[in-house]
Amino acid sequence: MAQDLTRLSIIEAAGLVKQRKLSPVELVRAHLDRIERLNPKLNAFITVMGDSALREARKAEREVQQGKYRGPLHGIPVSLKDLYWTKGVRTTAGSKIMADFVPTEDCTVVSRFKKAGAVIVGKNHLHEFAIGGTGINPHYPTARNPWDLERITGGSSSGSGAAIASGMTLASMGSDTGGSIRIPAALCGVVGLKATYGRVSKYGVVTLSWSLDHAGPLTRTVADTAAVLRAIAGYDPKDPSTARVRVPDYLAALRGDLRGLRVGLPRDHFFNDVDPEVSQAVHRAVAVLGELGCSVQEVSLPSFRFSAATGTSIAMAEAIAFHEPWLRDRPQDYGADVRDRLEAAMVLTATQYVKAQQLRRVMQREMQAALAQVDVIVSPTCPGTAPLIKKPMVKIGDREQSAASVIGVLTRPCDYTGTPAVSVPCGFDSRGLPIGLQIMGRAWDEATVLKAAHAYEQATEWHQRWPSEPA
Asked: How far apart are CA 134 and CA 126, in angstroms?
């Protein structure tokens, strides 16, 4: 086949596989070859599962030839943030502490991928234990942004962003506690979805914060995200946080236009401290949505300005409950930034935790009230574009702020409300770095969020751009 197979979307590749015009073996081998060539430069993978991937690809090829086609993920190469348990394959959580942990079973997401016929090609880099938004990791070579190798990919699903943006895999599973799917999606120019809390099972995904963690995909296109979500979503008796809520056909939901869709533009928080180039790109995206038939109105979310303090109290209090034994017995095995955050969490009080949960409830009510007036709310995904690895600072106009403190300020609120949010590319800054548009919606209504994102994506050309291959 003359075309570059690593430039296909899932939907394009699935059509060719279904028609028996493309072998899953050929498709998977093309991506493994690309991983072999690019990963030494991008550090997107901690573990590559080449042999097992080719075995599964051959199995998929036989099944398709026998008329046993399973659906749009059959024979499709996918990867996993290295928090997801994989039976017989190490799951490091990007840490020294879990460097040799080999699960005896697959997590639920992996089981559902396998049921759908997907082929797992490897485990992606991440910020240690997912505790951080930069992706800078002292234990494994830091993942590099395909648009500029001197810049971060964002975290904590750092390798997932790099792998998708560079064409090393067609989908990657990330996790999102304060924006860790959407941040790398925005900084790497791809699509990243955090579904409603309880939509996707977290069973067998290494915990950061049990009440804030979300599992979700990064892909090249919104349609690809819809296909992945359909395969992995749904109630799981192994995960008590999942809900018995019907899983719609997300691909079918993308059809139709946006006429009559009500778009909310928040007055508070989301545009207060944003780089002008990012703000301009997002407002241009809102204008495109207007041209597509959407009405636009302001909405108010005043308590969201407290989201950083809320998240620290909840996420880190829950994180220390998981890490306390290791922090007591093996503190030297943590990276300095993660150890400092965990040690600071040791002094959080029950009063702080309860008050943060109370404020979280206020934020949930405000989001519900806003989404009673509109169908989706839009904002920038991140306040700036990808900072340098050697100097991880986000530039906001003439000022620079620590990326660790501000990179997730616009993504955190939807983790606290539990409502779905997607990041989709909406432009590039003057340095050629991607900018993300965040689209937020009602609980359990990922379909509308994805439909709006898909319509915007198809009306623009940002998703068609690829970074130059690193020399």
From this structure: 9
